[in-house]
Amino acid sequence: MGNEITLAVPRDQALVLFEWLVRTGNAGEPAAFEDQAEQRALWDLESALEAVLTEPLSVDYRARLEAARGRVRDSEK
Asked: Residue 1: inside a domain, yes or no?
């Protein structure tokens, strides 16, 4: 048995999470990490998502992202 786990994430959530990771990782302000290992884990997660998502390379990325956000967002009642 290896040290890896497999996590199934809906594609819309993966895309929203990827965008957040990219945006916060490039914000220029250090996040409130208790340990650098937390930052490394988020960078590795971003890299893993980048390897499987095709949407960020699409010319209509922003539209796809907004659509995904709309599907992920809690519905207003």
From this structure: no
In this predicted model, what pLDDT tens digit does every residue of 30-62 receive, in sequence order? 667 888 898 889 999 999 999 999 999 999 999
State how far the Cα of 62 lies from the Cα of 50, in Å rounded to an integer. Answer: 16
What does the alpha-carbon distance between residue 38 and residue 58 come to, in Å, rounded to a whole number? Answer: 30
The domain of 15 spans 11-26+33-72
| pLDDT for residue 30 | 64
CA distance 64 to 53: 12
Model confidence, pTM: 0.84
- Domain count for the chain, please give it: 1
Q: Considering the domain boundaries, does residue 59 fall inside one?
A: yes
Structure tokens at 37: 């290992």
CA angle 53, 44, 62 (to 5 degrees): 35
